[in-house]
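Notes from the pairing session

We agreed to fold both candidates in a single pass and log them together. This is the raw record for the first candidate, unedited. Please don't reformat it; downstream parsing expects exactly this layout.

Candidate A
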Amino acid sequence: MLEPSSSEEEDDDLNTQNSFTTQDSLSSGYKSGNSLLEPPGAHQNGGPPRAVSPMSVDGSTKTGPGGRIGDGRGSPSPSLTSEKTLTEAEIAEKQQREEDERKQRIQLYVFVLRSIAYPFNAKQPNDMIKRHHKVTKDGLEKLRTKVDSFLKGETQIPSDEAFQNAVHCYTEIFLKSERVSGIVAGGGLSQHDCREIFRHQIEKRIRTLPEIDGLSKDTVMTSWMAKYDAITKDDEPRRPGQRLPTSMLGNEVMSKEQLYDLFQQVLNVKKFEHQLLYNAMQLDSSDEQAAAIRRELDARREKVSEMERNRKLMPKFVLKDMEGLYIEEMNMAINTLKGNLESLPVQQGGKSEKSNMLPKSIRGMKPRRRSSMLSRSQSSLSRGDEVDESHVTQLSKSDVVLTFQIEVVVLEVRNLKSVPGTRIIYCTMEVDTSDKLATDQVEASKPYWDTQGDFSTSHPLPVVKVKLYSENPGMLSLDDKELGKVVIRPTPLSSKAPEWYKANVSKGSQDQELKIKVAVRMDKPMNMKHCGYLYAMGKTVWKKWKKRYFVLVQVSQYTFAICSYKEKKSDPSEMLQLDGYTVDYIEPAGAMFYHMNWNRKSNPDDLEGGKFFFNTVREGDSVLFATEDEPDSHNWVMAFYRATGQAHRPAPPVTTGKSSSLNKNQGDADRARKHGMEEYIAADPITFDHHALFAKLQNLSLDWRLQDPFASLGWFTPGQVFVLDEYCARYGVRGCFRHLCYLEDLLEKCEKHQLIDPTLIHFSYAFCASHVHGNSVPNNPLGEKFSMTDKDIDDSLRSDGVGTVTQEEKEKFTEIKERLRVQLEYQLTNFRFCFPFGRPEGALKSTLSLLERVLMKDISTPVPPNEVRSVIKKSLENAALVNYERLSEEARIEADLANPQEDMVGEVIVPPSRKLEDLIRLAELCVDLLRQNEEFYAEFQNETAFAWFSDLLVEHSEIFWSLFAVDMDNILAEQPPDTWDSFPLFQILNDYLRTDDNLKNGKFHQHLRDTFAPQVVRYVDLMESSIAQSIHKGFEKERWEIKGNGCATSEDLFWKLDALQSFIRDLHWPDPEFGHHLNQRLKLMACDMIESCIQRTYTSFETQLKKGILIDATTYVLPSEICAMVNVVLDAKNQSLKLCAVDGVDVDKSKKPDENAKTKKHKYHTKIDDQIEKTSANMRVLLIGKLISVLEKTLGKLSAYDEGSMMGSFLSFANKKINVTGTGVDLGKSYVSFVRNNMDTIAKRITDDLWVLNIMEKWYFDQVQMLSTWLTDRLDKSLHPFQCTCLAHIVKKIYTEYELQGMEEDKLNSNFYQQIEQRMATEEATCVLQNAEANENGDDSDDERRRKQVEAKKKAKARGDNKDDDDDKLQRQQSKVSVPGKGPPQPGKGPPQPGKGPPQPGKGPPQQGKGPPQPGKGPPKPKKMDSDSSDTEGEEDAKKKTKPKGKPNPQGKPNPQGKPNPQGKPNPQGKPNPQG
């Protein structure tokens, strides 16, 4: 045992006065304000509270056990400064108060020890809800660090982007929330809660993910949760086999040792103090504990009898008639406890296990220790048995029959000389009349055994006989020879170690010194409490002073008998039932006096044989006992003391008290007396106010529970519940008082912002309400909203059968009821902070149900629904204000951190733009807040019992938004006019409100709509004016460079129109009528703008086409400006379908009678599609006309060779003699080259392929028609060879060219073409030019090469790549007309370098291949073009004829001014048309 240090030793003298054990001093000490010292750090973990807690009813602020305001005390850990200011008297008073506190705790611990050591009323519940480990402040920081490490990629956990986003969202919303820090400070957040909140968030995310074949969403959920567990796993797991500390046993059923350790921590009792108390109180002795309980019950019955005689000792009741009922309840409670105790089996702890064999090494053998008691599973609340004390059953001898188990082991024989060493010997053993048992046979030289014999007998004084035999070697012998015999008379108190016994042998034997080593072990039955030899003499029994063998037998928990036995007898010779007897020590002189009075004829010498006397006395009877040694006397007296159940504890006489021969119990008692523990052990429980003691015990237990590593929310551990239940039942603590104290403690914790489960408060409140209101507990104490089984209610909350109500209980209940109502209203007002993120689960629902119960007048009358609704409505109105104020403060702090202000003197003026930014951030926070409310606090709105709460929550939201509306209106009013930075605010708010079915079109939504409607109208008006001005200015400065699908102005126009419509559409205007009006207005505005755009484009198109063609018409190429204009109109057609159509249908402005006035004002009388189609058709006609004019001029040149004309005859002669004009093939090639270049230009620069195909078909048709008409006019004339070769080349090549462009066969082979083909065939035959043509035109290789080129260009255009080279070629062809030589581009025509201009608004860079041609390039040589076959044909001509002198230089360039070439000879291609 642990010995205390010398500094803690006290004087050996026992202080007999127990100043603090009286009821008055204890109750006054408890009620005077001596509150408990709070464990260190109980209130510092959460920091200062964020909001003011509700005040108590009387106006005093309620604090926890850390100290009360106004009680004149300092903090639990006063500073050195405050310590120095105390006077000596105050220091002494403080020390005295601390000493009284220590004494009270130790005394309370004594009662707790007795409750744990021998429970007979309660059991440890094993069906309580499992509590998870809570997250501490350091644990939260570690969790945040682990998650941050994962997000930074510092872990080896595999993840994808979706899981990363989920963890990031979890971190920002939950882990970094200030409310999480608050719940951690309150001790209400568990690791399980963190995991469940993460699961809740990812469930919503996974539901929004698209389905993936072969991968179910459940699999994704399981994988994500496994990754979360890997992220948050504990770094230091507990080692296998490591013993858990007591604080970690929050969910398990505890052993006695663990319960002792638990309440040492609860009551701050030192370990050595516990050891002193444990040994001195004999907690391991079930007999001592049962005797203590019997003494306590007798004392309580005496107190009840005294209260029945003196009614002033009773507490004050609400009704006078309850006094008689109170007496009945007390007697019933005592009888219940007696019944519980009587029902316990006498064999407390059960039978001990026995081994069949002793170990081979017997040395140091010790008896096996037996369990001191059985764990009880009885409940004091379920017992209604009563014990009738008026009739005491008289015992018979058959009631005290005992059964003994005897183990006999023969080990060795010594000094055996009468037999040779090779002779076989063995032993037999027997107990009384039982069967004999024999050992193994061994040689005489090795007389060793290890054989055990087990016997059972009912004789308290059995006789054990062990005999040694040698085997008779004779063949005819029947019996073996007995060598010796040992007779042993064991008792349960005999030594269990092996001993040498001298054997009885025959007189003539050589083995006179024969000894046998035998171990005899006689077990003590559980109902035998003590045994031994005593001298005794009494009046009715044991009338002669004689030494007898006595046994103290326990028949039941309340019945004992002292019996005397004779040897080999199972029934007692005499017995005395100890009911009503008391035992005490007596001096030898007093013993002699009693002896003389009983038997006057006897001599004093008749009492010889006894030295230490004690007697048992009852009215009319007395028995004197004596022992020969003092320790035996003490043991017998204490056994009698436990059996009689007397209140007086016998004290040894002074003459014998100083004896040095003390037993273990006496030594423990002296040791306890030495350290001042005897006064606590000897204190009578009946003299204490156990209600006050229990209130303190329960308060300290709650403090300890809230400090342990579990998120208990106020629920006790199974061990704590067990001890508190046993204490209440054993010491008579009223159930209502217990729950009232519990409610008071829980409310104090709530007011300190510690998280307490509302369901726990509801349990205790329902119990108290049912008791105070005089009603029995209803079938469901938590109301209809909680579905609980009868078993749950029976286990958690059952009536204690008490019908009396004290005045103190009623007053305390009324006070607690009001405090609880205020606290519940406070929690509802701050529900986001009291129950953050819906934790504890279902807490808000439990709070509402509890509030409804608190508002009830009694337990049976339901509260009117309107009253509950009004209270909750008021709380939620206040909640809206609290939430908005805190959110505004949070937004302000964020704004200050984002825009730190330097220290300035005076008022800091915040610009309106900054205020608007802060307001938008506040709006985002408000939306997040309400979404969290809907997510975490509306899980039960669909239940019928709480249907009304949904409406109140909607009103709460509306009030919340009304507070926001005030700030919004003020800030918007400060904004300068015509600023549009507030539209994001509208989008944030409207996007949330329109998706909330409860807030959609509500008060705030309507206010928001009315506030922003004028701004939207003003914005649209200004945008319309701005776009109109940009069209006017843009087209005035437009250079008509191809950009995007049109020009710069058109791209900007269409982007602005689309952006405006997208912006208005994204507003999702809540009013359908106004939204439709905005949509119609934007569509009509788009019609006007597009119409203006195409009109200006068409005007510029006409101007551009009026520019004349140069002298050599075949060198003409369409300018890129023309193509850009065409693209503008074509793009307008595509954009009009999106910008000017409602539901995909064009706006028909002429069919709206309600807009006739507007139609007339804005000329909304034509469809934009009709206008575009008309403009497009006109452009096509004009463009074809421009291109046809080239053919017209070419045919004009050919007309000069007509037959019969003077010019024709001259040219024919000149051509034949000197070849002045060359052949017609050159002119045909020039025209074909013109066609090819312009076809390529149109196909590449105009974006609409269908429009390109249409213009190709029309161009082809007009060309063929013109050629047919020209030939028809010359039917009566034969064609000149020049004309014939030119036309033949043109007709064949254009057919091929247009075929390559995708024209259909039937359109190519028209009637006009057939007529032309027939005529040209005739003319060719006439001129006999077939061979010449074949030589000049070559074979089909040129056509095949051209076909491949066209197909490659089509594929490139379809892909949108490989266009830069084509643009360079087109630029070279175009520069042939626009840029003679290497001069600069024409003014207004030369576009900038691609990529160096500013990007188009809202668009990307210009499409590859669509940009304008590069300026500054010289015109290419005509015969180097890819589309020209002149090189091949020129080479074939050179093979057949020499080059004439007058033929122009093939490397020469046409002269636009008609000047002669450098050789001084006129160029026939530059000659003007004679007919022109």
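Candidate B (folded immediately after A)
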Amino acid sequence: MRNAIIRQNKPIASDKANPKIANEKSCCFSDGFLAYAIHKLPNTDPIPAPEPAAPTVAAPAPMNFAAESISFKLLDLLQPSYITDTISPLTTAACRLFYNILPGQDPDLIFPERPELVQALFELCNSDDNTVRFYAYGLLGTALELTVIATNFRNLSDPLVVPSLNILHDFKNRTIQASTQVTEEPTERLFAQFARKSTENSLESCGDSAESQANTSKTFLAPQPVGSKRPASPNIITPEKRTRLQVSTSASNLSEHQSSIGPDETSNSSWAEISPYLFGTYELHPLTDNMRQRLMLQFLTPLAEYKELLSTFLEHQSLQLILHYLDVKLTKDIRLSFEGLKFLSGLLCHRRFAIEFVQNGGLQKLLQIPRPSVATAAVSMCLYYIACSKDAFERVCQLPKEMLTQLMKYVLWLLDSSHESAKCHATMFLAEVFNFRVMIDVFDSLDGLRKLFNTISTLEILRVDDESLYQRDEDVFASRQKVKHCCMALKCYFVMHLVISAVQVKRHQSRHNNNTFSSSLPSQPYRMADLTTEVVQDSMTVLSSSSLRLGWTAAEQFLKLNGFSSMLQIASMASEWDEYAYRGETVKYALEILSCLTSLFRLCLKLFDAVKLPDDVTTSGFNIVITLAEGEHLKDVEVQKAALSILNNCVHDKRQSNYINESAGNSKAKTSNKVIDDLMTKMYNGIRSNNGIQVLLSLIKSKPHNAEGDTLRTLACQVLLGLSNCNTIKQIISKMPIFSQGLLEAEIRNPPLQTDKKTQHLKFCNVATCLLDKIIGQNLHSRQLGGLSFDQLKKADIVARTRITWDEKELLQLIYQHLLSRGFNISANALLDEADLHQSTSNIFSSPFIHNPSNRQTPRVGSNEVSARQLSINVRDSVQRLESERPTSTSSAFSIASPSVSSPVFRSISPQFSKSTCKRKRPVEITHQKARTTVSNRGETTLDDIVTSYLQTQHSQCNRPIVICPPFSLLEPHKCPEPLYRRSASLNLTSRIMSRSVSAFPSYGGMEGVSFNRKLKHSRFKFKNISSLDDVNEDTCFSALTFSPCGDYIYLGTTTGEVEKFDCLSTLRNPKQKFSCDDSIIKQIELTRDCSRMLTSFSWSTLSVALWNIADDDCKKLHTFSDQMFGVFTNVNQDSVVCTNSEKAVVFDVRTGQEIVKLFDADYTNYYEMNCAYPSYHSDDIILNDGVLWDIKQPRVIHKFDKFNRHISGVFHPNCMEVVINTEVWDLRTFKLIQTVPSLDQCHVLFNNARDVIYCWQNEYCERSGSVNDTSFKTVDAVDYQPIATFNNRKQIQRLALSPCDQTVAVLESVGSNIDEIVTALKLYEVGAPRAPDDEDEEDNNTDNGEDDDDDDDDDDDLDDDVDGMLLDTLIDMEEDGYAHDESLSSDTDFSISSEDDSNEDDDDDEDSSSEDDSDDN
């Protein structure tokens, strides 16, 4: 049996071990060692105790038997028929053997399946045979660790508690009595004459030397023959024992904290006295008294956690019993003390018992346990459970400082030299006690941070070089557990230091400002600090707003230990531990540590440092944090919250700190703010360059599935709010659809239905509203958003900033007329005389605004007349609205400034007003700021407020409101002037064609005529009746296409690596020419302008790009560019080829085939999944690759564009001034975001040859594949990016090409619904040709087609579907003839009107875009 045991020096729990039954049962821990207590059992009242996150001790050591059937045969012997009759030697031997092999078995597979065995063991506990009875107690101790057994046999286990305690008390009394009567003779030792000193019956640990402790901790795990007794005679010394003696008695074996273990501890001959205190004895046959007590304690240990049995344990003095077993001098067996400590760990789950244990000096007894020894692992577990009890540990903190120092030294020794399970419990103990100010001071005084960090700094799993050693799964799991627990302890450590530093800053600020503050820490240092989330966030805010010179000793020491980069490494590496169940917690703890550290702004700069990761990968800290915040690889809300908290600390505006500005002079404050501005700009660029804006916007747009979803959106809005302090980033995000299209306002208006989500949603609404305020530039807290778009919000802002003035005499005239209508003639005459209104009465009675009793006719609908009654109704509605909004002064003021669209005043005023022409004298000027002050300060509504609100309502209905307006009139409606263009083109096609011959009109029928013709032409497609390619070549499937430069031929690439040339005028039944290129699928074909060279891109079997010479109607390969996925010719000279592979681009020379330059920089990569490099249209030296603009002359990076999608990397616009990346249009001159085009989302982009229209079709790899967009292609105006039409092809589009004259569109489609389906059909559409009535039937015979013209209903309203074909053909012919001559004119005209509104008159009322510059243009 001895040779059959597999030795295991460091038994570690595997990831498959059950956390509830993870036992440490190597030879020295053969009796079992629970990682932590079981807290949840059925049908019991659970004990409130902390729940450790993972198993922390070893799994059972495997047993290698000669035959697997031995254990099953043994269980057959332990049937009730054998053990319930008269106890026989066979039953005794079976129980002893079963107890010996049980550490190598899985109890889950034995006891639950054999309940009759457990029943028999309970019966044996009542037998008269003491030997079998104690064996049964020991076996039941293992069985009761299982929840199922403990629940089903609760009625049998509880009655055995009291007899067991009585038996233990008898053994205790006998031991005490024997120790007082018998004096132990000193053991004979070898070489006693070499001893330097002798102490009598004393006890000490074996020293503090790191090497000695490490080696000694391995020696006590050495296996021991089961059932045998260690020889008592020290004269027999084996070579193995001699080695252990030399290690354990080295020169540094004296401990400065404890007494000696035995006489002459420096002599090798003292091992006989040391071994009982280090390893103890193990003897099952014959049973000794110590072994009987151990078996009895094993039975009581799983029952100690039940709340129902607490009174029984207290009544029978279990505390005195445990204190007895903690005295190793009396027990003289460390294994017996070890079992007593396990029993104590279960009882410490009860608050009452933990308090009594501390009050009776139990902690001092624990610290006297020798170290190193077997029992130290159990000591760490007991210390952890004491720390979990707040009341008990507060009493510990009141002990003398020397005792607390000794306690912390003991724990730090456990971190350094104890067993793996003891290290885990020690780290969890530190995580609990760091909430006590007195303990963290003791920890810092002993250099505890360095010792705690060293626990993980040397682990093999954190090595990033290639020399990392192979580790077993058990060792890897144990190392990951150690990382998790240490990160948890470090997080608690820095959170406590963060709060302490924040309190110190607050105290300093309160003294400086002569005010008081409330501390978040208890006044007594031994009290536990309540570190809630709100307290931590407030502390972070205080430190973020503090001086840059603020010192933090703990953080500085951690930086010296390289802890900052280590936490980044752990966060990145742990996120890839897919098989580790607690990777989310590990990453969260690491990020929370960084969140605390980045509260100091200068520590945020450490995120720019390079972090080395496995596989020779180097990245920045910002990249790691933003990747984790995105949640793509690790979808954990807590991890995302911690990552966003770090980003929020980085973008917190330090200039808001009053502490900086007030503690320094003006010059120092300016210098400090200048430094802060530079650092903040660096932070903004760091987040932006790592695509942080894209991640933040995606988090805001994500739909929350629980309350934490709104938390993520709130944090993302906070980070964007900080980033918006940068004008460049503010301009970019203001163009995003979430702001420009009112998506964020829609999220604010849709509260969740669940009650538990409403509180967090309210926080999100507040932060989102602040973000809108910052982006728009006006305080919008008090305004009901009501689904307004970004343009409408700008319009409301202009109205709110307009200075409202009117003629005071007009108001008095209205009052005069009102008094007359009510019969107050005397008052009216008095007002007439006093206000000198005689000169204006003639005009006022003739004004359509005045209510004349003799003329009660109602004005016609649509006329410019509004009665005085209508004015009085509006005034009355305004008063009612002001009265209803009076409780909130801010809301009322803003409601006056920018009234809601749905208000009565807004609805009553007609937008068809002419310019006011009446005379105005003595204008009274009232701004919206004055109105707000009047309402909020005086608390009453004045006539000025009512008139101001009425005039602002009129102003808000103007299509193009301006800030600087002439004085308003109370007698005539107000309307801001709008631009009128006499030479504008007609919306009617016939009128535009006819006006071309008139010299008074410009070319193409007037201004914007080119745009109207272009949109009309590219919104209609006529299907050509051609045969399907399946009917032509049944064995050929096409995968690529392109037109020849002359437009007469079409080149089609096949799946067999061939290129076939067809005549466009033929039926495509026989190819005119066929080139055999490769045996792989051709994905792309491109020809030069002279049709002399052809470029093909292959995939699958051959990853390459090939260049061919096809000038002589023969295909000859010129060059092959290997390891490339995509290739295009340069646009200007076409003397080079730009090839792409993933994020790398290479430029090759066409003549030599040699590489010219490689474009790749790891610091400027966006990693688009479908990256394709494209050259510029005006220069072959400018290339766009992976969203990065390159100059290949240097080569150098010109600019990196922000990434807002995963697939599309972007193309150049033919106008040479813009870049289109998915939906974003960027200006190449300023690198600012011009606008976003939702129609281009996840679409391939193809410009027509006239370079004024974009053809786009859905990307086959996007998230929306399978929708109707996959079967449609769209046309978009390339000048103003307005959608033109959407044409439904009815089948999935794979490729699309345009003829050089832009008259034919070729579409390759796939028949199946799978995106990887082979393309089998080709369709040709004629551009701009009207559809004949019989075209639909012919098209349906080949494939279903549809036409959906989303936009530009202006042309549809004026041109019927049955428009004369000859008229449309005339338009096309005229445009083709005049395009070359008027190209420059049309281009200039298009760009000059790109900002104008090309909608029809019916849409004028819906236009909301306006600005202050409009007044100047008008």
